[in-house]
Amino acid sequence: MALVLSLTAFLSTAAERLDATVVNVIDGDTLSISTTGCQDCRVRLLEIDAPESDQPYGDQSRAALIELTGGAGARIELATDGRDRYGRILATVYRDGVNLNAEMIRRGAAHVYERYSDSPVLLELQDEAKEDERGLWNLEEADRKKPWEWRHAGVSPPDWDAIADKVAEMLTLFVDVIAELIGSLIEWLQAFESDPAA
């Protein structure tokens, strides 16, 4: 933990600092926060990628971030660095001066996100977690798939033609049902007009 504390200044290159309250911990690298001018905003922890919730160690990773942040209602500080393509605030998250992004790596609760980080400090923390078999590094190798590989494994783009065909089929069925109802209503109205007593 002392190592993480001493690395806080080194790891943070962010432009803006925000005080925030944790609303919810979504998973091991995403929080929902409340801060001035932004209620229930999503925050993505910079430079790390935690196992997905349906991936081995996903639940434990989320539990680690809940513990580190203090959970819902806890006060944290963010060093923000813009937004990602999903509109989430990108940030290094701190609680009581501890860099939680680095601490998630140190505990073996997340991977260094290789595509977005080449931090030698984070890579060293990850190597130490691997060596000590902490967190996800204690899993069988087959269960340690990197989250970005997990997300892309077996994922195929949507079959837009099949979707369009299904929508057209449903619309046709809907139109047929409406036409039948209108036809029945017209027959009833015609019968009523010819014999109002019936």
Written account of the structure:
The chain is α+β, with helices and mostly antiparallel strands. The protein has two domains: 2-152, OB fold (Dihydrolipoamide Acetyltransferase, E2P); 157-198. It is built from six helices and eight strands, in the order αββββαβββαβααα. It has helices at 2-11, 58-69, 100-106, 120-131, 147-152, 160-194; strands at 16-27, 30-35, 38-45, 48-49, 75-83, 89-95, 98-99, 111-112. Residues 1-14 have low confidence and may be disordered.
Label this structure with key terms.
disordered N terminus, 2 domains, two-stranded antiparallel ribbon, 198 residues, OB fold (Dihydrolipoamide Acetyltransferase, E2P), 6 helices, alpha+beta
Q: Report Rg.
A: 26 Å
Unreliable spans are: 1-14
CATH class of the largest domain reads: Mainly Beta
Q: Trace the largest sheet across and list its strands.
A: 1-2-3-6-5
Please summarize the sheet with the most strands: 5 strands, mixed, barrel
CATH level-3 fold name of the largest domain? OB fold (Dihydrolipoamide Acetyltransferase, E2P)
Number of structural domains: 2
CATH architecture of the largest domain: Beta Barrel
- What percent strand? 15-25%
- Gross morphology is elongated
Straight-line distance between termini = 87 Å
What's the count of strands? 8
* Element pattern in H and E: HEEEEHEEEHEHHH
User: What is the helix tally?
Assistant: 6
- Indicate the mean pLDDT: 86
- The amount of helix comes to 40-55%
Structural class: alpha+beta
